[in-house]
Design a protein that fits this description.
alpha+beta; five-stranded mixed β-sheet; four-stranded mixed β-sheet; 8 helices; 11 strands; about 25% helix; about 20% strand; globular
Length: about 300
């Protein structure tokens, strides 16, 4: 039998000669391979991913060495993850993807604005009574946090859960310093009163660097970026029948408000933490005098 022509071979492969891979048609060809995906959302995501990824590769004309370096970087990122360290979350944070996904999925519409979860919500916060201190070692400048949880029309959300966690005065979370900080230090899960109010005692948080001893830190150094986040307290607030919010409360006079490594700062979440010099008030709330204070009202969407 004589040699078969190219078009004949293409036909017997189940495609026309125009369906082959080329630089110009790469995205179209690969996206078409996902056309039979039965889940319409997955099909849309994969086809869009292919289109944008191929466009990026063509735009920068990625070299083979650069692609190999990217694979090595992602491999090292996965290898750095463990039970208390999520390097891929850090990567998502420093690329701004975490904040973008959070913002798209939680458009405020008058409710409290959301921000990134962060990589340190790795353990469950222990239930605590309103007014308890989450600072188990008492190290740091004392602070009283008060607030109220309501719905969009101001209706009080009694029984709302208020999950909080923060870094220490030295800029570390408990999971970063086992044996140095007490277990579950600076973490607490509170239940709001019938009128939606909540309050707890803590210490003033400090700004801190995200973990920069791994691939993400190397990326920041290579691009001339710092790893710091401004001082903040994390919140997850939830109530039955309402959409929960993951957010931060930022200290107004902290460094790095304008250059958060995770892009988490929103103006509506920045608060003053004024000093209260009032011995009677300090005794009433069980804090040494003077102390810091802040009030944070949280509005949830239905």
């Amino acid at each position: 039998m004589g040699e078969l022509s190219g078009p004949f071979l293409a036909h017997n492969r189940g495609m026309t000669s125009e369906a082959g891979f080329s630089e110009e048609r790469s995205a179209q060809v690969v996206a078409a391979s996902f056309g039979g995906t039965t889940d319409p959302r997955l099909r849309r995501i994969m086809q869009s991913l292919v289109q944008h990824l191929h466009a990026f590769v063509k735009d920068v004309e990625l070299t083979e060495a650069e692609w190999a370096a990217a694979i090595a970087f992602l491999t090292a990122t996965g290898q750095k993850c463990d039970a208390v360290r999520q390097e891929f979350v850090l990567l998502s944070d420093v690329l701004g993807v975490s904040m973008l996904v959070e913002t798209i999925n939680h458009r405020a519409g008058g409710a409290t604005e959301s921000t990134v979860l962060g990589p340190f919500h790795m353990v469950e916060s222990p239930p605590r009574e309103l007014g308890d201190s989450i600072s188990l070692d008492g190290k740091g400048e004392p602070c009283l946090v008060t607030g109220r949880v309501t719905g969009p029309d101001g209706e009080p959300l009694g029984g709302a859960s208020v999950d909080v966690w923060q870094a220490s005065e030295d800029g570390f979370y408990d999971v970063q310093q086992p044996g140095i900080q007490p277990e579950s230090n600076l973490r607490g899960l509170f239940t709001a009163e019938a009128d939606g109010t909540f309050w707890f005692r803590t210490v003033l948080p400090r700004y801190y660097p995200i973990p920069d001893d791994g691939p993400v830190g190397a990326l920041l150094r290579a691009t001339g970026r710092h790893p710091y986040r401004p001082a903040h307290i994390h919140f997850i607030v939830a109530a039955d029948g309402y959409q929960p919010v993951t957010t931060h409360l930022f200290v107004a006079d902290t460094p790095y408000l304008d250059s958060d490594a995770a892009f988490g700062v929103k103006d509506s979440l920045v608060r003053n933490f004024p000093i209260v010099d009032d011995p009677e008030r300090a005794a009433e709330v069980g804090l040494p005098n003077p102390f810091r204070t802040v009030h944070f009202d949280v509005v949830l969407r239905r």
